[in-house]
Structures are given as C-alpha cells and as structure tokens.
Amino acid sequence: MRAAGVLITAVSITLCAAPGSRADDLEVLRRIAAEGQQRTQDELLACPDFRPGQTVQIHELVRVSIENGLIVPRSSLPVPGGQSVCKVRIEGLEGWTRLTVRAPRQPAGDDPSTPPTNEWYVGLLRSKHQNPQDREDLVLDAHAGGITLSKNHNSTQRTLNVVFKQVMGAPEQGLEPQVTLSVYDRDDQRGNPVSITINEPDFGILRRHHSAEINQYLRPLLREFRIKGLFNIDHVVASQVFPKQWKRDEAMLQKVAALVQGLDADDYSARQEAMSALRNLGPDAALYLFHQDQSRLSTEQLSRSDVLMAAHRLLGHEQAARLGEDPEFLLDCVEGDDPAVRQAAVERLEKLTGKRPEIDANDSHEVRSKKVEKMRMELMSKPRNTNPAIRRDRNPGAMP
C-alpha cells in the first residue's frame, strides 16, 4: 500500500503444508516471513524520532470534531517543507508508530505549474507482529478531504478487518459527503463470518441507524487510537430530543417569527428573501422552526420550513421521538457536557428500563464513562436478531 508517497510493502505468507511436504519447508517459510517483518521494523527504527524520549497524545497529531454531522479532521503538524516520515510513541499504543506528514504545496516563485494547495495529510501506521502468522495493523489517514480509520488483524484463529471512511465531498462539483463502515469478521470458534458494508450521508445518521455495529466495531477502534469526543451529542440534536432543556433566545425567537411570516408573503421575491434570511441564521434558528406551532402555519410556510430544517440536517419530529427512547443515544447524552441534558437522559433511561440506572448525572466524566460503558456492554449482551452475513447499503442522498 502507498501512504503519502511512502511505499509500504506488506507480505503475507500462509503457512500451510501440502501433503507430503517436509517440516523444514515450513520452517523456511516461517524464516522468510520473520525476516520480512524484521526488515519492516528496522526501517521504522531507522526513522527520526518525532519527539525524542517523549510520548505524545493523539490530539497533538490529529484533532477531530463533529460539525454538521460530519467528522472534521485538523492538524497543526503540516508546515511548508514537503513530506516527512518519522517514528512516534503515542499514548495508549504499544511500541512505535510510523508518522507521515505531507504539507500543503506552496507555489515555487511565479511558476504556474505549482499552484498552492491546502491538501495536507497526516498518516499513522502501527504494526504489531506476535509471530509470522499473527499480524495486526492500525491505520489512520487524515487530510482535508476526509478521514480513514482501519484495523486489520490476522491470526491463526481470527481475521478481522474494520474500515471506517468518510469523504467530505465537493458540493460545488455535485459530490455529496459519504460515510462508510465496512467489516469482515471471521472467527473459527464462532462459525459463519460477518460481512457488513454500511453507507450513510453523514456520521450522525450512521450512529443513529446502526448503533449495534458502531458499538461492536467502531467504538473499540476509536478507543485503540484514544480518539474522544466523536459521540458527543450536538446541542441542536439535544434540543430537539429534550425540548424542555432547549434554551430559547427571545431576540432570535422574534426575528425568526417575523421571517416565518414572510414565507407566506404574496410576492414571490419576498418569500425568497425571507427564506434566504432564515437559512443564513444557521441551525440555531432552524430549531425555532422545529419547535414552532405547526397548526398555525400555512402549507407554504410548512413546506419552506421543512426545506430549511433539512438544509441544516435537523431531525424529523418522529426521529427525535425515537431517539428519546433509544438507550444508545441516551447513554451518549449521559457522557456529554450539558448537566441538564445528562439529567434528562438519566430520567429517560429509568423510564425505559424500569429501574434507576447506576449513573449519577453529576458524577465526574471519568466515573460516568465507566458506568456508561458497563451499561452499554449489558445492552450488547442481550440477544439481537442478527444475520451472520449481511450487507446494508443506504442511499447516501436520502434524508434520515
């Protein structure tokens, strides 16, 4: 495979003996595999140390946040100067990790053939070899166009390949964002392999529609990389699910109310002007459209309000109601930063389960996270109706 101009060759040799083959033939194959792994390790050790004698946290290399339902990667590492490859010790990851950084291309004087670009790249590769037959690779690729996280584990008893990929898209070219989670999991002790491919238009929809697969495969991968914060509940979503916790702003309320009246104006240009003004107010203004008394609106106002809410990826009313009864969503709320939302989520969990959760909304984040993880594992242990070989594809352009 090629990562940022660096060719990394991974040779996988299946150690199996044909009938009549000699034991020393297998030993030769094992030695070849071991020598290849040693060369890879020696090449990594020969790279300069990113921060000699120190361990770094993942967010010092790549930071991620959720914006409008998409994962946005950022990094302060890329600086003018081309590309560099080094080794780094990352907190929580065993051994050395290969770090590849490519800086945005800068123009060379007045040469038009080298225009500037913002296409930065940060790549991480951590390989672990227990023996010639057991190999595990963790990969993170982040750049302006998206992010990829993957784990490839091969051993004598299990093959596990998990790939999460998000493409930011290019709206000006008609290319929409897309998020894909692909899994192949074959465990000799379990039986039939699991094969999953899920496509969604953004990360928020992926987590809402496929919590079981997220919990089983993506959350563990994020924990291995020590990536945090991707499951924080956006305040816009929380305000739809928990309307009593929504903090209204009277000035914004009056402004939105006046513009909503304009959506029903007799003059087309006036309706378009009100529509544009509401869109420019952003998702917080769209919340007022979500919570407005729809019985008082005309068909024109309702139709245009729906378009505006869809433009800001707001939930539908039915979906907001479903999330309010989704234990996985509620557990994510309990881990969040808003005390009022945390308390509302705990109360909903109590109503759903019929018993008081062993979680206090006022506990420290560390304590809450441990209790949430325990409750999440209990939920996962309950029987689910699953097919051992499934493929789920959704239209990436469809609304949730």
Q: What's the gist of this structure?
A:
The protein is α+β, with helices and mostly antiparallel strands and 400 residues long. The protein has twelve helices and 13 strands.
What are the key terms here?
globular, single chain, two-stranded antiparallel ribbon, disordered N terminus, alpha+beta, 400 residues, 36% helix
Describe the structure.
- Helix content is 36%, strand content 22%.
- With 400 residues, the chain is an alpha+beta fold.
- Among the domains are: 48-224, no CATH class; 243-317.
- The strands form 3 sheets. Strands 3-6-7-8-9-10-11-12-13 form a 9-stranded mixed sheet. A two-stranded antiparallel sheet has the order 1-2.
- Helix 10 packs antiparallel against helix 12.
- The longest helix has 23 residues, at 23-45.
- The chain starts with a strand and ends in a 19-residue tail after the last helix.
- Residues 1-17 and 384-400 have low confidence and may be disordered.
